[in-house]
Amino acid sequence: MKKVKVIGGGLAGPEAALQAAAQGCEVALYEMRPHRSTEAHLTADFAELVCSNSLKSESENSAPWLLKQEMRLAGSVLLQQADASAVPAGHALAVDRELFSQRVAERIAAEPRITVHREEVTTLDENDPETLTILATGPLTSPALTAELTRLTGSGHLAFYDSISPIVDASSIDMEKVYLAARWDKGTADYINCPFTREEYERFLAALTTAERVPPKAWEQIPEAGSEVPEAAGQPQYFEGCLPIEEIARRGPETLRFGPMKPAGLTNPRTGRWPYAVVQLRQENLRADSYNIVGFQNHLKYGEQARVFRLIPGLENARFLRYGQIHRNTYINAPSLLTETLQLRDHPSILIAGQLSGVEGYTESIASGLLAGRYAAALARGLQPVPAPRLSANGSLTHYITHAEAKRFQPANITFDLIPPLEEELRRKIRDKKERHRLQCDRALEAWRQWLAVG
Fold first, then answer.
1. Same structural domain, 321 and 180
2. pLDDT on residue 217
3. The pTM is what?
């Protein structure tokens, strides 16, 4: 049996390593931290959550719920640890970052088939007949490995900007001005809501849109194709699913009120009405001593963040434990490079997983690691892996990244737009969207169970 080499200790890498090991493979797991860190990581821990601490909705029959249900059925180890590290977050699955990383590290240490190497990998051997490689180095892949990937693919790579939301000390929040609620009363009231009047919103908007931004650093610039060293390349290429808050605000005075500051479904118990706009704070850890400002990723100078965000009602005296940041996110052009089993078309002994493959989001990254680990284990036994079923959430996400239009390819979260619709006759018969989604989920889970049974 061939050995499996996993490069990257974020989310996809550990999941891939644990999946391959569970199926009898000897696995070498490489992580360059702490010897070499990245511009966004704060620790050398496995599965460090760099941005939010949320793994998205747990609302039944939603697309993120479906993806997680499939992962649970497949024995996703990282999702098990996320469930065990959960903090209150309404109808979402959010985790205590430190506890989550600690539990993932313990599972890796307890697996005798995994050997951990704390060193940087700078080359890829596509011709090694004894080893399968899973590259899961994430959005800040090192320049050396980026150059290696460019050498192998011959097409360079793309980049967009990913972001980190600020975190505030819970004790510095003025609880007399805020209220607890979940949107539309879904789940428990775990979010702190900071309500705005129209005048407060307009004052905040004016400050936000005129605040001084951080000039892009060299490593944040979009690299030219085939170049190891990034060069300045004009306007930043933002990913639409993770725009900086100030960029959203510049698109029009109402964009925030219909986006991250949407008040719909968040009745203020003091007034009995929705506020004009609202900012939500989500619990960061089990101690509930810190909260992140939901959707407030930004690229403002730290002093400007403090000035502007203290205009949020309830945060006038906020102490910031972490300011928002922007970092460059690298991914391959998967439609032109990857097969449905996450193998490079021209170098099938190398698999790509996680955000590097073009999936976006924590849960999606873990899911791609789960698939890559299972596919690598099949290849190690001399078998051709069967792709995840198209009707499933996992299969639909992989189908998107491997079949999207290459010229316009952008990373994707799991949504129902990616999952095949119901048959035309059923669509005409069933008008209710929730019922359609329920039937799509039932169909997906059945296809997924059948795939697991033969895989």
1. yes
2. 58
3. 0.76
